[in-house]
Amino acid sequence: MVKDLERIRKIGLLTAGQVRDDLVARHGEYPAMFTRLLGAVDPEITTTAYRVYAHDYPAAIDDNDAYVISGSRFSVYDPDPWISRLEAYVRELFATRKPTVGICFGHQMMARALGGITEKAPQGWGIGKHASEILAPQPWMQPQAAGYGVFVSHQDQVLQLPPGAQRLATSPHCPNAMFVVDDFFLGIQG
Question: Which residues of 116-142 are buried (b: 16+ CB within 10 A; e: fewer)?
Fold first, then answer.
């Protein structure tokens, strides 16, 4: 993805909702989950959470080296003002070439903000562990593998990639399971 991954130390977590109460006791809220995950990869990484669903954003895009957009129970096409604001912010992240990873709702929002189409999946809900096939292996995918498994819970998905996007992975339920635009904007359906 990004050539200078070792320079990324400050990651902004754009949280697009709250984790269900019955899951918080075991896993924590999104910031705790991502901080644990990222800290296991590199203990020098720091995270700052922003509750974008409550209109909480960084003072400046450059306050962080990179961003992660979380999942959500909402749909990217819902007519809520916070969703429209996030869509505009995602366009700003792209325009400034800020390394960004979107997961589930975040993946769908990145596609929509850049001109892709996200709607309810014609095949219905995706729930459980789904296997995805890697179509375009990338150097940062370590270890190299033909595919991966991920637990999913979504009724929406990216039906059409945005212009310039490269599909990296696919599954029978979700043809656009992972995509990248340029080398700094990565979306993963979860």
Answer: bebbebeeeebeeebebebeeeeeeee
Distance from C-alpha of 30 to C-alpha of 36, rounded to nearest angstrom: 10
Res. 49 pLDDT band, cuts 50 70 90:
very high
Residue 103 backbone zone (phi > 0: left; psi -120 to 50: alpha; other: beta): beta
- Report in angstroms the alpha-carbon separations of 154 from 71, 103, 124: 9, 11, 9
Domains defined along the chain, listed by start? 5-188 (3.40.50.880)
State the average pLDDT over residues 54-80. 96
Q: Which two tokens stand for residue 190?
A: 């979860």
At residue 107 the predicted structure's pLDDT band, cuts being 50, 70 and 90, is: very high
| Residue 102's pLDDT band (cuts 50, 70, 90) | very high
Tokens 């604001």 sit on residue? 85
Rounded Cα distance, 94 and 97, in Å = 5
